[in-house]
Amino acid sequence: MTMMLLPADALRARIEVEVPRWKQIIPDIGLKVE
Amino acid sequence: MGMRRVRVIVGSPGTESAWSASCSRRRLFSSSRHFAISILTRNGDHRSHLGEGVAECACRDLAAHVVAIVVIAVLVTPAVAQEWPSGTVRVVVPYAAGGPVDVPARLLIERLAAQTKGVFILENRPGAGGSIGLQAVVQAAPDGGTLLLTTSSVTMVPTIYPKLAFDPLRDLTSISLVTEVPISLAVRAASPFRDLADLIARAKAEPGKYTFGSGGVGTGNHLAGELLKKLAGIDLLHVPFRGVAPALTALYAGDIDMLFASTVETVSHARDRRIRVLGVGSPQPIPELPDSRPSATWCRAMSRPTGTACSGRAACRPAC
Fold it and tell me: Which part of chain B has CATH 3.40.190.10?
């Protein structure tokens, strides 16, 4: 099992990708939001 | 000269995969196969407070997760080293003590304190899928005195709790990703579910009968369960708990039928044969969890009727 550690810029880039992805997925799975 | 290296050693299992997102179903599920543990700080803190993280990686199996695995080398200029930490530093963990975020946080604090001679205090602020702890950090002064060690739920909170008006990119400064841990799906040892395909078949036969637990609403584990429901076309009732520990207790007691939790939280229980892990969000099998299926087979389990024999590798490829 490989462990990976990302520097700050890579973490930020990942967050930039993941936030809109979850914005799309969460309503799609029918999760009730606040 | 000019730079001082502060070495911080923390440990936890993890994996990084390049799981192909070639279809919408797989793309959906790949988003929840891990939760990532990250260090962030209040935006407005000067980045050089902690410098640019320089990562060194190590390979270990799950059995070695309690020993030092990851090395983060934090570079600090002499001037910054003089000023940081200038006072007590709060390290906020938005989850309960003893969990997979809390443990590496304590190791991190121990090393940071030893290296910088500063005072670091861990604060567990659980609740609302990590959003309570997030709020505490966002509302803190941007002076380098507050750090956040959290999971990938930081990317989900803006959608789940829109009233918080929280934007991780605007409100937090990224420092480093510490580790990635596969999510696992566990059932109690005496569960009738033989494997994931059997679980799905039974859930399809009796919609609404079975329950899944998680460490709370809006956590990555909760969303993994919701994704399974969506992708497999089954109806499960979500039962949220205040952390994974009480959810495990409920699993033992038979109060819930299955539980989504990180492998950090399930592997020791599986070793003791108190639970069985049917699937892990890892592209490779985990030797310590011999009953589990890696992520590549989850899609197949969702698309292949129980008992269908695979004739050759092609027939066993994920259908999605």
Answer: 182-316
pLDDT digits (tens, 9 = 90+) for B50-87: 322 222 222 222 222 222 222 233 333 445 445 777 78
E strands, B4-98, where? 4-10, 34-42, 53-56, 70-76, 89-93
- Cβ distance B175 to A8 less than 8 Å, yes or no, reads yes
**B98's torsion region: left (phi>0), alpha (psi -120 to 50) or beta?**
left
Tokens found for residue B222: 């909760």
Q: Which of B42, B108, B48, B43 is nearest to B72 (CA)?
A: B108
Yes or no: say if B201 and B249 are a contact pair by the CB < 8 Å rule. Answer: no
Angle between helices B220-232 and B295-303 (to 10 degrees): 40
* CATH 3.40.190.10 matches B182-316: yes
Instruction: Name the DSSP class of B308.
Output: P
CB-based contact, A5 to chain B, within 8 Å: yes
**Which of B132, B159, B226 to mutate: most A Cβ within 10 Å?**
B159
Q: Are B104 and B180 in contact (CB under 8 A)?
A: no
Residue with tokens 């609404």: B208
pLDDT, tens digit, for every residue of B83-104?
777 788 888 888 888 777 887 7
The yes/no answer on whether domain B4-181 falls in CATH 2.30.29 is no
Residues of chain B numbered 267-306 and touching chain A (CB < 8 Å): 282, 284, 286
Tell me how crowded residue B23 is: count the other CB atoms within 10 A of its CB: 12
